[in-house]
Amino acid sequence: MLSRVAEQLYWIFRYVERADNLARFLDVGMSMALDSPADGDAVWLPLIEACAESSLFEELHPAGGAAAVEWFLLAQAQNPNAICNCIAIARENARQIREVIPNEFFEELNALHLDLQPGESFWQQALPEQLQLIRRGCQQLYGIADSSMRRDISWQFANLGRLIERAEKTARILDVKYFLLLPSPQDVGGALDELQWIALLRSASAYQMYRQHTQQPITPSGVAEFLLLDPDFPRSVRYCLNGIAEAIASIDQQPLLQSGHSLSRSLGRLQATWNFSQVGEVINLGLHQVIDELQLQINQLHSLLETRYFITNQCT
Length: 316
Prior knowledge:
- The structure is a single chain.
- This protein is mainly alpha-helical.
- 73% of the residues lie in helices and 0% in strands.
- It is globular and about 55 Å long.
């Protein structure tokens, strides 16, 4: 496979996953804003922090506000990671490699892209309905890919993009609640705190699975353990990292890269950390600090993947 094609497959699915997760971010932001008695910016601005776009947002919207955050994350032309731009970039990548992806996948992605164009009926709907349509469109794309793509090297690169993006965004949305939206001491464990944790679980499509798995009250440590360390939930960090390792092993069609290779070492350290850690250890180290370190490690992993497969296509 040409490294150009591999890279485009990787980014198609990474951008679709990013659009889906940004819609989830906005959804949880709305839920928290409705339940929070505090100033709206105290709920909305942390979402910008979670997307690592605070400088650009402050430049474009110095006054801030909920409406500005919504527009910035949904359709701001100057924000390359706005949902509409993510879908547009994914669609353009897919257009260039149509012979590699199923026709149904491109048609669905193209339809979602067209729905998001100015003047379409999509923009006459309220934000909750808009987010629901975007998430449904992304889920349909996943369903088409899962049911129609051969599990060959094309699938593995597509899955790599999806899993890396998912691991990063699952950690980020957890960080929004745990660090950036910490309630006041008297509210910890209260009704508002629990409502926010429920909204967070729902944003990751994890609420029902959490209830079934734990059969315990919702607690910060329980939610953190489920979203970070659960081996079977497909949006948990641990599950994603193990899936990334399997995809790389399949791509190379040999034991996971060469002994001592920087990608092998980086991925091995990540797997060891998240396969054998316990939530108490993570919280004692500082969940925010651990998630920050995870973000750096995922970015490093992406850079190593890019070097190995998309630029030089050689071991370094």
